Amino acid sequence: MRSELERDFERFKRELPRDFPDHVRAAYGVDLTARYLGETVPHPIGKGSGQLSLNGGQLEDDAAAGLAFVVLKTVIAEDEAGAQSMAAWAIHETRMKVERRESGAGRAGWTVTWKGRGWDRSLDEYLALLRAGRELTRASRLLVVPSVKYHLPRLAEAFRDPEYRYTTARLAEAWREPPLLVEKDFSPTLAGDALAGERAQIVRWLRDVPERIRAASPLPVRLAVKLMNARFDDAFQIEMMDACRGADALVCFNRLFDTEQGVAYGGWDLSDRNLRVLDIAPAVRPGLTGTGNICSGRMILEYARGGCESVQLHTFFQVPLADYPATQGSRTQRALHALVFHPEDGLVAGMLELGARGALERRGGELHFLDVAARAHRQS
Predict the structure, then answer these.
(1) pLDDT at 163 over 80
(2) Which residues are CB-neighbours of 87 under 8 A, at least 6 positions away?
(3) What gap in Å lies between CA 371 and CA 362, rounded to an integer?
(4) Mean of the pLDDT values across residues 237-266?
(5) Are 111 and 40 in contact (CB under 8 A)?
(6) Cα-flanking dihedrals φ and ψ of residue 27, to 5°?
(7) 247: closest CA among 202, 180, 182, 307?
(8) CB of 228 within 8 A of CB of 152?
(9) Could you tell me if residue 77 is inside a domain?
(10) Distance from C-alpha of 17 to C-alpha of 25, rounded to nearest angstrom
């Protein structure tokens, strides 16, 4: 199988087949089926909310490449009059800068820096993009999910429910059929804001926001919450997970925030912290999605060992072309090729290794990606 994997790695450098999960299953007896927000997807690799998911052309390219799912750029909630309490996050993006960042332990990784935050165009334009995503989802070409930043009050302040009602109703109108899938974004820039300086305030948001979104929707809602890395210790990250019991899924965890430079960042410091928190969490819950420094198939499996049923990437779709082993194809195709088929660090190689050493058992003659996460659930 190693020699066959090396051959596939070489031939897929020129063109990655869109149905590569079927090929992996037939050739290696490895079932890459994964889950995001309760939806079954053909493999665990999706695209996180950001600049790479803000127009229809990007969605079409990702569908053609065979990506599992995409979370749209985060829209800022508004009320019927167009007022946005979180308008400070509707900032136009500056040019993204892809650069090396050394971790505290001296390990060099990639990070992407930009000054913008959320969707800075109209809600109507966002809904048009969501409808395009809905058609891709209906055709089983690509699961597309909107991301929203709603009003977050201070402790003594009430929630601005008109924002929740109006924006959620418009999303449901565009999506049309239940369930409405939504990702609630607690962005890394929020972690650097004074608004997120009190633990009790954050816990209140995580406890109350999911039910407010459900109450605001005319359709049944399935909700993922993308948790930030707060400016507190690891124990508080676990407290945040526990507070968010009203969500159907958690995305663990958004980028770190550099208070000196005023920017969010990734790299090895991010994955080290995220995996450490997942490892010490006293109870691993279903519905976890990992994110942060996912630069290899083996890193995907590290998150799976922490209970994650899928992963979201952003930075690895933007590294210099010379860093991808593939010589042709879109960036999404080149990233998928490296993540899945690299003969040493790819997802298939990692799954086969788990099977060879007895850490993962075959069922029906196949190794199953979701069994890696399920094993973490059982151990808890």
Answers:
(1) yes
(2) 76
(3) 9
(4) 89
(5) no
(6) -85, -35
(7) 182
(8) no
(9) yes
(10) 14
User: What average pLDDT score do residues 80-89 get?
Assistant: 89
- C-alpha distances in Å from residue 322, one per residue of 267, 369, 370: 19, 29, 32
Q: Which residues pair with 221 in a beta bridge?
A: 180
Does any domain span residue 368? no
Q: How would you classify residue 106: left for phi > 0, otherwise alpha for psi between -120 and 50, otherwise beta? A: left
Residue 195's pLDDT is what? Answer: 80
Where do we find the tokens 């190693």? Answer: 2
For residue 358, CA distances in Å to 257, 354, 361, 367 come to 39, 6, 6, 11
Helices then strands, counting H and E runs in the chain, come out as: 13, 16
Determine the Cα–Cα distance for residues 89 and 94; give it in Å rounded to an integer: 13
Contacts of 206 (CB under 8 A, 6+ apart): 186, 225, 227, 240, 243, 244
Tally of domains within the chain: 1
What are the C-alpha distances in Å from 283 to residues 71, 116, 203, 207, 252?
A: 26, 35, 18, 18, 14
Cα-to-chain-centroid distance, residue 69: 9
The angle formed by the CA atoms of residues 153, 158 and 163, to the nearest 5 degrees, is 75
Tokens representing 376?
């973490």
Tell me: cis bond preceding 253? Omega within 30 of 0 counts: yes
**Residue pointed to by tokens 């690895």:** 316
Q: What's the pLDDT score for residue 138?
A: 97
| Domain-embedded: residue 296 | yes
| Residue pLDDT, tens place only, 306-326 | 999 999 999 999 999 999 999
Do residues 133 and 112 make contact, with C-beta atoms less than 8 angstroms apart? no
**Is pLDDT at 238 greater than 60 in this prediction?**
yes
Residue pair 213/247 in contact by the 8 Å Cβ criterion: no
pLDDT of residue 89: 81
Where are the alpha helices (H) located in the chain, listed in sequence order? 2-11, 20-28, 56-65, 123-138, 161-175, 188-191, 199-216, 234-243, 268-280, 297-305, 331-341, 347-356, 369-379
Q: Which CATH number belongs to the domain containing residue 288 in this structure?
A: 3.20.20.70
Q: How far apart are CA 210 and CA 222, in angstroms?
A: 10
- In this predicted structure, the answer to whether residue 380 has a pLDDT above a threshold of 50 is no
**Does residue 311 lie within any of the structural domains?**
yes
Residues of the domain holding 82? 45-322
